[in-house]
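[INFO] parsing input record for Zinc-binding dehydrogenase
[DEBUG] input buffer:
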Amino acid sequence: MRALIVDRSVPGQLRLAEAPDPVPAPHQALVRVTAISPNPAEFRYVLPGAPDGAVIGWDAAGVVERAAADGSGPAVGTPVTTLGLSEGWAELRAVDTALIGTVPEGADLGEMSTLPVSGGTALRALRRLGPILGRRVLINGASGAVGRFAVQLAARGGARVIAVARRPESADELRALGAHEVVTGPDGITAPVDGVLDQVGGPDLAAYFDALGEGGTLVLTGAASGGATVFAPGALLADPMRQNRSIVTFFETAGDGIGTDLTWLAAEVAAGRLRTHTVWRGDWTGAGDTLDAVRESRLAGKAVLDLS
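[DEBUG] output buffer:
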């Protein structure tokens, strides 16, 4: 099979080459991949430690070529979207059936490849906030891939959504996705808020935690800023109006139900009830510049690489 393999000797450290076909474990299906969607975090956290010849990649969509030997998961010929911690950027992927979402017939598999990390993170992180109907939920990094899904899902869950986006020009689009308020940073927030989803981390995280009211929760799903968070003395202490606040870390593949969540997300997108945000799409054989743009977080949305 062909794959994007790690090669430190070439610009970008990735090249298209032949690689051994994966051998599925009994609980894995073999998927013929038709589209992949890279994430900046793969370049930030995975590529630096991967050895030459390795195949990385989290998000991939395609069609089941061989069903799992243990009888779990979808049948041969089923269109699917898949999540894994590696080996997604290849023509064939052996993937745990618990991490496979089935896709409605006829749906665009390129669009479905954008769902596992971004849509799955937004859905599962929002659940960590508890019931959000009628509550004020702040989403930091709202113009990013996770943030756009989170805005839509939080609004559908009945929350009053406060979107934080660095680019003021994204305000109209975020309101169209369901945001009730759009601000560019902590100074625009009227406290208290009931929950925070933060994809950015860094210096402003302390301010978003400080905006939480009693019983509020901040779920940290990413650290895109690359900066440190410094809390002022006493910032983590409670007072009568802000007791029982918490910061919760998050890891998407922890816990059950991922396949079910991906199947639901795929159905919502196929039916037009949930919008993806692809800003670049093309053949993977000519995607070097696009991969660099993803690596450097220069794309205001998702890239989809179609496997020719």
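[INFO] The chain is about 20% helix and 25% strand.
[INFO] shutting down worker
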